[in-house]
Queue: 2 jobs
Job 1
Amino acid sequence: MSRPVPGSGDGRPTSSSSSVPERQGGGIADFLAPLGGFGVTFATMFRKVLTEEYPEVKRPTEARYHGRHQLNRHPDGLEKCIGCELCAWACPADAILVEGASNDDTPIAEGGTGRFSPGERFGRVYQINYLRCIFCGLCIEACPTRALTMTNVYELADNNRGDLIFTKDQLLAPVQEGMLPSPHPMVDGMEERDYYLGKVTGSTREQEAWAHDHADEVASLESNRR
Amino acid sequence: MTTQHTASDPYATSSADETFAEGAAVFNASGGDWDDLVDEATSLHEERIVVNMGPQHPSTHGVLRLILELDGESVTETRAGIGYLHTGIEKNMEFRTWTQGVTFCTRMDYLTPMFQETAFCLAVEKLLGITDQIPERASVIRVLMMELTRLSSHLVALATGGLEMGATTVMTVGFRERERILSIIEMITGLRMNNAYIRPGGVAQDLPRGVYDKIRDTMPQLRRGLRELELLLVENPILKGRTVDVGFLDLTGCMALGVTGPILRSAGLPHDLRKSAPYCGYEDYDFDVITRDTCDAYGRLRIRIDEMHQSLRIIEQATAKLQAHAPGSPVMVADKKIAWPAQLAIGTDGQGNSLDHIREIMGESMESLIHHFKLVTEGFRVPPGQVYVAVESAKGELGCHAVSDGGTRPFRVHFRDPSFNNLQAVAAMCEGGQMADVIVAVASIDPVMGGVDR
């Protein structure tokens, strides 16, 4: 079989493959070398299979894995998000929508809209579009309050666009032991800075009493928002 | 077939179709004898066929379209059609800050994300004039990540190349070994591909605890996997029959076409930017530039295998250097007006900015908070000018030409992707060869269309 090769008259490259320094193994080794692949095939039959049995067996990711986002709470249950939109600014894919609003300490019965986070502002609307998100993690690096973190949850597939835009209620972390669901007042005697200095360790009696007394108002606030 | 047709039937055969041009050969799909047909075709003395191969073809290495002119089984002319994976990355980068640009350029050649990131960051740092201020640890981490990426890229080159020649086992072995590397990369960056880990000024975060052990445990497994690949490939008579003297491109051809990487080194020129124009401290590592003089697909395959061994050597040296560093050595430039202001930490709530960093910016230092906001929203300003920085990617010389007009976003960023330039050689390699050798030649170029089209 002769193949014409452009630029060489005899149809063969001028430097032949014999000039390659091959392993010099002697007659028998040279003879057996082409059979090495069979050895690999044979030995593989006795090796552990590395196939991942997903979805039956779910391999945990590395701790740093960039998975689904989560909006965190302070130890007393107030939201950490202050609606500053830094995550949305940092996002190179324009996947995040934030609308901030002012916290309102006026009693809800008098038309107040409630306090959701310590300080002035909170994230009223928070959406992450997982059709746009590229999981680069710039948003969590941008967040100045550790409100936004990335978990290791990676099963985010769905069959329609609408369900892949995650809203605040889906992203917000669940209320844990010692927390009270927002809205509720800040810890008595604490200011915003104290939350970031780690002085708040959980909800107080006063906050619990407030939540107990104002449960109906909070519920009406939520139904009004809907 | 009927000659009677009405205006209401637009698909009816027109009478013009039935009057054939004088002397033209007519082939009917039904009736007659095959021998008659062949005789008729032979009498025309015309065996020239134009075949469109791709862009959706399993063995064209992605969405590459090849237009082949065939004379029987021989290829008389080859043209590469590209652009099917154009995503406008370079243009998009002009509308993002310099830091955000990393998340885009990492997606160009998706098998070598670290190289694009490093090339881009080196270019930005050169524009900023802070090349000397990059912490040594950041440079060593970059080298580590690049060599891991080189390994995984070469493994995919061999795996898909083998698959395209029909060797499924080579593919499974190659991807199995690559998985080990991706696991290390996932541990360090949090992502397997498209990492956006290397940033202007350093790297996103320091290595996690336990990564040295993981690398140390993986090295022997990788060596074993490479050994298996060598046993499967190097002396395999079928593989040698398919690759030796196939895809021939000598040094003159390489130089004329701007070809770099394993293809150039298979022509005997020991050109490797890690040696000839070191960056990231590559001059401090002990490794060899692999060359061969066969100028063919087999030589390139052997070069890739040997380069992986060299990469393993560099990874071991880089790991030793990193372990020698004092704990807490910086991985980001000290200049607070440039350094990306994140200190990530992992907690029960996932990964986010560390509570220490939060305490500093929100509770203690207004200056830090201002820097944080300025850098995230606006980014840093880069002095006007233009630079070209090149790194030795797994595929060849990967260059980044960055132009700044003094703003917080690039005026223009152009990447010289090695796959793009190397793909020029496809015609020179394939013309005059056999149809089946086209696949081998393209596999030996190892183009990644994400990088070619950008």
Job 2
Amino acid sequence: MNKSLLTVDNLTIGFPNTHQTLTHVVRNVSMQVQAGARIGIVGESGCGKSTLAQALLGAIRGSGVRVDGTVTYAGESIFALPADRLQRLRGAEIALVPQNAGQSLAPHHTVFQQIAEVLDIHLRVRGDEAWRRTVALLTEMRVHNPEHVARRYPHQLSGGQQQRVALAMALAGQPKVLVLDEPTTGLDVTTQAALLALLNDLTHDARMAMVLVSHDLGIIAHTCQHIVVMYAGEIVETGHTEQVFRQPHHPYTQGLIAAMPQITTARLPHAMPGQVWSGASSQQCAFRERCAWAQPMCATAPVLEFVETTHAVRCHRWQDVLTARAECDQAEESHQAHLTPKQDDAIPVLELRQVSASYQQPAWRWWVRTPAKLVVTQVDIAVHRGQTCAVVGESGSGKSTLARVVTGLHQPLHGGVYLAQDLLSTEVSRRHQAERRRIQLVFQNPDLSLNPQHTVSEILYRPQAVFFGRTRAEAHPHTVAMLQHMRLDESYLARLPRQLSGGEKQRVAIARAFLADPEVVVCDEVVSALDVSVQAALLRLLVEIQQLRGTAYLFISHDLAVVRAIAHTVVVLFAGQVCEQGPTESVFARPSHPYTMMLLSAVLTVPQRDFQSPLVHHLDAGAVSAGGCPLRQRCPIALPQKCADVEPPWQQSAEGHVFRCHHSPQVLAEYRNQLFLPATERSMP
Amino acid sequence: MQADTPLRATYPKWKHRFSLSAWAGIVLLLLHLLMALCAPWLAPYSPTAIDPDGAYQSPSFTHVFGTDRYGRDIFSRVMYGGQVALVISVISAVLSVLIGGALGIGVAFVGGFIDETIMRVIDAMISIPSILLLLVIVTGLGTGTAVIIFAMVLSYMPGVVRVIRATALEYVPRDFVLAARMRGERARHIVWVELWPNVLEVVLVEFAMRASWIVLAVSGLSFLGFGVNPPTPDWGLMVNENRAVLVLSPWGTIFPMIAVATLVVSLNVVSDEIARMFGVDRGVRR
């Protein structure tokens, strides 16, 4: 092993809190970053990952913050460096790609100005040479048309491009250590796959070390050699990625892995109870409250124990945990029970027929009015009682517009929404009260969907008053029963949304929808903003209620693994057009449309038993093409003439789902085999 | 979820710690209110009682603030003057904040053509210098308390509309408003139950701020002779009446000025404190 480039030694960071004490966000963390190493730091939100990442650059500021321990770079303590040395170190030696690149780029500087500033400060490169290097960097980041992009402002770029620009900026100073904080959050799966492939290549070539902070185990598993699992500010497990995933020793690591939905099997992920308590003390095991293995001895703090030379775990009972896991594996239950429909009603409870929708400026703003561009084109969807129909697609594919059309918040251009064969009005205010009650919507972000000034009791009372005319006294037992169903107790009634955690807020939002006793619930990305363990709990909850009440879900999501876990049927949207639709099982097992294949191949899952080398597939977001097949610019097997001119026809696959493509099923099957070659036969780039 | 999981730190508003300057402001404001409300009992003389022999007296034990050119007791007149200032400014501020607030939330919620039209009219009203607008109204409609209040509301309401509309616009596109629409709630419910509690904090800050500006504007108008009619004690009027003898007997000017200044400062300090209490970011004041 090489000499360590960056060494973190017994680092503890405490932030002052309202009780005049310190909340230790990072506790006794020691780690080493060797040249060329790829280290992943993983954990739920509130585990101190980002704070640790910032500490690597010596960027811990604020009054009353207490930092113990050291971060050493090339033999010098970073915290002891004078400001000018520190500035030269940042960017030239250690660079950070901050979370949410779009917000970290200066909005009134062009891409070139921002990168040139880094070049000027760290390499003394100016003028034409700076321009040349900027374009070279952007080219290296696989930005399309780099000269054009360099002259743009950040807001004129897509999320993926912004992320690449931020990466180019971080790499401009030719750092030896690159720290990435959640680099792919908010990006589409295909964009994410492309970006991670790029990162892989960069660290291969440049012998640059990389520290990647993420909540997503899939990303870490596919990009990093070494993994650090953090819980409540402590390292609970660390080791080679392969070791940790093959044999997770710590209950928390196991819980995280079990909470990840799998693309390969239709099982519901396992939830972990509770949430991260950042105020945990070092006196006891921080995970104790949530741990199924907790025993009295866990009241003393466990130490980081080496189980192999490179694999360490902080748990008193890791041996017991490990043996039990082996037994549990054999008894793996079949989790597909929830996906077998009880009875197949012939009449779908919700039906969309030939729905097209567009966004347009209102008529009175004639001076900015442009012709309508379709965001949803001729979509047919049928959802049956007690079933879940998932709509998947990248951002901008028209998923959310569909949700708005169904709920009457957006008027479609053509087509109609039918509730049990009755045509609904396109405008929610013109629907009957009963129709409004029967279709409920759960929004993506509970911070926006719950009124910050209303208590939980108020939020849950209102739908009952409107739909059932209940008084507060009459509504109370219903409210409490629903809260209990959501695993929340009566004490939550008096709380305001800001006093709830993210998962609790979403539970309240779901409770509000179900208090109307709906037949159809439209779920718009309901679990995307949540940590995996919370996400798993909510998915289970949704399935439970569905089985109890026979509610139909229109489940809108960009996460294919989640869709696999809970959906009976799936609709794949690209640029507002349906590419492929049918039973989830058959679509996911044998996708027929090239776009579905691309999406599926870009999903990064956590390898469970057989550890595969990462699937590196170069996909990139390109322009959506008008006329013909919308996918043709991104499709690797597009026919030059036919795909551009003729709209692809509907075809039926052997497995019983339908798709739209010019290619024959044989050609598509061949392409599929090529794409999903077993890992052993695929050569790494 | 465990019961012992600590909630995220919340700062209950009623546990707010007032700063020293805030306390000073509150005490000053209460003092002003007390003086104005209790003037009939506390004032040593009638504010309109003329004493031709005792004109232009300096402060003494009999006349604490001295007397003016008609020998009227300045202390009593300052006390009664506070009544006029407070009544006019509180009524005008309440009206402009209520009307402006309702209009602001309304147009933010309705949006579209109506919003656009009303806001352009509001822009036009804001572009007229307020003192000019006040003078035009007062010269057109004559003086008197009702006219002054009308003028104040007309010149300060547009600013309130803008601020409240901007605040409401932050909440209108939020999903809870959509959720209310999907329940089939009436516009009235959405505006008053869903949106109003969210803008209330800004409304309170606006109220305190506008009140202090209106105090200044009312005094300014009276000083120019467009305010309340002469025998009525009023601070601006008092300053104006004493203008000619400023060097000989400054008392008739100094004390009403101190009254105006302390009232405005106390209102400013209190409005700042309300803003800080609710965490409303008001930015730089104009």
